[in-house]
Amino acid sequence: MTASRIRPFPRFYQYYLGEHRNPTCRLLHFLGSWLVIAVVLAAIVTRRPLLLVAAPIVGYGFAWIGHFFFERNRPATFRQPWYSLAGDWVLWWQITTRRRSLRGRE
Q1: Of 91, 77, 75, 84, which Cα lies nearest the Cα of 30?
Q2: 57-90 burial, b if ≥16 CB within 10 A, otherwise e?
Q3: Scanning 22, 25, 51, 57, which has the fewest C-beta atoms within 10 Å of its C-beta?
């Protein structure tokens, strides 16, 4: 099954979790998401909107390193970008609230 054919989002999210089993990949996604938040806050506090250019670079940079080097799969971002972005933030929230583990063994 490819990510581009999976709907609705809850079904896609189950696929997404399967593509993020490696603990290092999950950690890199989690850290990248926190860095996105930090960059956005820095842009607001310093009133430098140009900093926002760095947000997707750090967010996707960390995530893609996790996929290419640790998970060894192709990020769903290339096939289903909006669901993938939503999945990143749902996973970030679930790890932050301890509903899901960084270890990837649910």
Answers
A1: 91
A2: ebbbebbbbbbeebbeeebbbeebeebbeebbeb
A3: 57
Rounded CA-CA distance 27/31 in Å is 6
Would 37 be classed as within a structural domain? yes
Q: Residue 34 falls within a domain, yes or no? A: yes
Q: Name the domain count of the chain.
A: 1
* pTM for this entry: 0.91
Structural domain of 30: 22-96
Number of H helices, E strands in the chain: 4, 0
Coil, helix or strand for 8? coil
